[in-house]
Design goal:
Elements (H helix, E strand, L loop, with lengths): L4 H10 L1 H8 L3 H27 L9 H28 L2 H6 L1 H22 L5 H4 L7 H27 L5
Length: about 170
């Protein structure tokens, strides 16, 4: 007997941790606040790199060093965003899974990940050739611009979720 996604989401919704989040008046707002702060740090660090990739100079750093310096902060914040986002999701998993804005947010994150992978498989492999030049190659510029667009979409759709779904049923 195949298991449907809705039954998985219902099981997540009925889990003890999801019930705790729903029943505690301050749990959801605290988790959501941490999620927003984490996303802010993710977007901030990614934006610095993306703007450098688009040709805006960074203060005393080449693109490679900027990426190396910011990557730990980006991944740490992204990890926190995934944990807090997962907790928010399970608190109302069935409703979130059927919410169009949530689905669009997930698609934008997947697109951002694919964009990052393509960048690392292409332009980043040749970063030694363009690391300190003011104008990076077109592929780096496109990767930086696309990344900014995808992350702005993640933020916009994420915020839109709050206006299209009830936090609790």
């Amino acid at each position: 007997m195949p298991v449907s996604l809705d039954s998985v989401f219902q099981a997540l919704y009925e889990s003890s941790i999801a019930q705790t989040i729903r029943q505690n008046d301050s749990a959801f707002p605290w988790i959501e606040s941490l999620h927003v702060l984490a996303i802010t740090l993710v977007f901030g660090t990614i934006s610095i790199v993306d703007l450098r990739l688009m040709g805006y100079p960074s203060h005393r750093r080449g693109a490679r060093q900027l990426i190396i310096d910011l990557l730990p902060f980006t991944w740490g914040a992204f990890g926190l965003a995934v944990v807090t986002g997962s907790l928010l999701f399970i608190s109302n998993a069935v409703a979130y899974s059927h919410n169009a804005q949530f689905q669009y947010k997930m698609l934008a994150m997947v697109a951002a990940g694919i964009n990052m992978a393509i960048f690392h498989l292409t332009a980043y492999r040749r970063i030694g050739d363009w690391d300190d030049v003011r104008s990076p190659p077109l592929s780096a510029k496109l990767a930086g611009f696309s990344s900014l667009v995808f992350w702005v979409l993640v933020i916009c759709f994420g915020r839109w979720i709050g206006f299209t779904i009830s936090a609790f049923f």
